[in-house]
Amino acid sequence: MEALISILIGLLTACGVYLVLRARTFPVVMGLTLLSYGVNLFLFATGRLTIGQPAVIDAQAPGYADPLPQALVLTAIVISFAMTAFVIMLSLKARAELGNDHVDGHADEEGRA
Amino acid sequence: MSHLVILPLLLPLLAGALLLLVRRALPLTVRRRLNLVAVLAQVGVALALLLAVADGSVLTYQLGDWPAPYGIVLVADRLSAWMVLLTALLALFALLYAIRGTDAGSRHFQPLFQLQLFGLCGAFLTGDLFNLFVFFEVLLLASYGLLLHGGGAERTRAGLHFVVVNLVGSTLFLFAAGTLYGVTGTLNMADLAGKLAALGPDELGLARAGALLLFAVFALKAALFPLYLWLPTAYAATSAPVAALFAVMTKVGIYAILRIQTLWFGDGAGELAGLLDPWLLPLALVTMALGSLGALASTTLRIQIGYLVLVSIGVLLTAIALGDRDSIAAALYYLVHTTLATGAFYLLAEGIARRRGAAGDRLIDAPTMPHAGQVGTLFFIAAILVAGLPPFSGFLGKLMVLRAALDDPAMAWILAVVLTSGLLGIVALARSGSLLLLRAGPGEPPAATPGRAELLPATALLALCIGLTLGAGPLSAFTQATAEQLLVPEHYVETVLGGDMEAHAR
Questions:
Q1: Low-confidence ranges of chain A (pLDDT < 50)
Q2: Cβ–Cβ of B156/A87 closer than 8 Å?
Q3: From A48, which residue of chain B is nearest by alpha-carbon distance?
Q4: Is position B19 within any domain?
């Protein structure tokens, strides 16, 4: 399971980084989203991967899942969700005001970016 | 437990919420006054906090009364209180300028202004790494709104870069915080200090990676080379009071670097001691050199100020990299000076741009501006302050940094870069000053002449800088005491983790 999770996080992050470096705002937004997915999974895994362990106190429990990463990842999801919404609105505004969807607002590189 | 520690957070949060609720109900003049009252109260609270910690005590506030390191804790020491007061003072003058018309475009300017203060003060006061991330997001989200305030294509373009760069930075912050948590099992900064020092050899690699990732995030916020490219354009594109307020935003990165450098990587940190040392000094010197070249090459005054900000970031981080008591004290003094002077300069730059008609703040010939004498005097003082010429605070700050550098093995490099970049800064400012003020050329004069009162906030900030010069003795005594406190982090750690909710006097 560790290998699968790490490959998944790595893949999401690599795709995210690649897309963030693109020249159009839509791939950049997608890249930011993938990066935040990757980091959320990563945060979730920082409490170590355990199966079937309770997170709240239970007298019979043999051990516990770490509850803190779950709280952290919830915060991170909310924040990244809001930020994604904001950056989408900003990209639309940029498209409307600059007349194209290039991140630098240059129309002259049409088709090459 | 002293509630004073949480007041600098509650006040702007509640004021921001109130201003958001009444944004349609009350006329603009009333909302402006409310905002101004809240910021004035913030200055008062910040002063009270500074006086409370001036004797060397570390005040903690455990939210929900959960004991550290399990709960979230706010910590006020000399450094935090110093930064909170600086933020409040700068915000006061930025707001005094903004309520002269900049804030009229959107009903959300006033709430966002308060939320920006909330994020800034929270970042300075929190003692929890993840909480620091949350406050970074609060201040960034408010800053996105403020940066874009007023609209316009140039602002949108610069805003898009600023937002995307900072979002990537936030992701890196989460990776770094997650790694450190995975290795140490804690997010409390004081607890981390002990846990990082006691790590076994198996986990050192991960801890190093996490800590350096965190350093990269803070370097991005502080606009350190090579992560500075967003700064000059973003600050030049936004409105003057927002740019002035942003002068303290890079200092959040500086604060965070100084905090982790002294708390985690000081002499008592075991294997991780001095982790940032190979990076800080070279990067700071390169930032300084490139900043001064950028200032020379700028085509508008505001871009030029942005590059001069980079020079000051370089000076600050050089002093922090030296890492002894005198250099950190010098950094803290210079930090206040450069923040106030930069804020004044941005306010002044818009005043100049509005007096030159179509030429704006571009460094080209334009008709003689109204109030040229007054504007010229202010520009002259601001330039002396920013370039670090005697007799003002910029010179004193740089002198203190250089004196602290004399014993360092890298002294020759530091002296060479600081002095050369100072000279280049003077040349750049002399050139723009003569182009803006001394050469009258053809062109359309501005349709409406702005009043002289608009120059008052900038004048007041410059006066504050001169006050810094006059009060250099007691102020540097305070920064010396702050540096001493930072270099003995054990007291901070004990107070935060002690479980004792009373303030420990040293």
A1: 111-113
A2: no
A3: B182
A4: no
How many CB atoms lie under 10 A from the CB of residue B451?
11
Domain that holds residue B450: 276-470
Q: Is residue B297 part of a domain?
A: yes
CATH architecture of A2-50+65-98: Orthogonal Bundle (1.10)
Query: Residues of chain A whose C-beta is under 8 A from some C-beta in B?
Result: 16, 20, 25, 28, 32, 35-36, 38-39, 42-43, 45-48, 68-69, 72, 75-76, 79-80, 82-83, 86-87, 90-91, 93-94, 97-98, 103-105
Q: Where are the domains of chain A?
A: 2-50+65-98
ipTM given for this complex = 0.91
| Residue ranges of chain B whose pLDDT lies below 50 | 500-506
How many domains is chain B partitioned into structurally? Answer: 1
B66 assigned to some structural domain: no
Interface test with B, best of A9, A30, A44, A83 (most B CBs within 10 A): A83
With beta carbons under 8 A apart, name residues in chain B contacting A94. Answer: 156-157, 160
Interface test with A, best of B161, B164, B229 (most A CBs within 10 A): B164
Side chain identity at residue B292, one-letter code = S
Cβ distance of B181 and A82 shorter than 8 Å: no
Residues 6+ apart with CB under 8 A from B46: B8, B81, B84, B85, B87, B88, B89
In a domain, B201, yes or no: no
pLDDT of residue B505: 39
pTM over 0.90: yes
Q: Do A32 and B144 touch (CB under 8 A)?
A: no
Residue B139 near residue B252 (C-beta atoms within 8 A): yes
Q: What is the pLDDT of residue A109?
A: 52
Spell out the residues 6+ positions from residue A108 whose beta carbon is closer than 8 angstroms to its own.
none
Distances (CA, A) of B104 to A80, B32, B485: 30, 10, 44
Look up residue B160 and give its amino acid: L
3-state helix, strand, coil in chain B (%, to 5): 75, 5, 20
Interchain CB contact of B164 with A (< 8 Å): yes
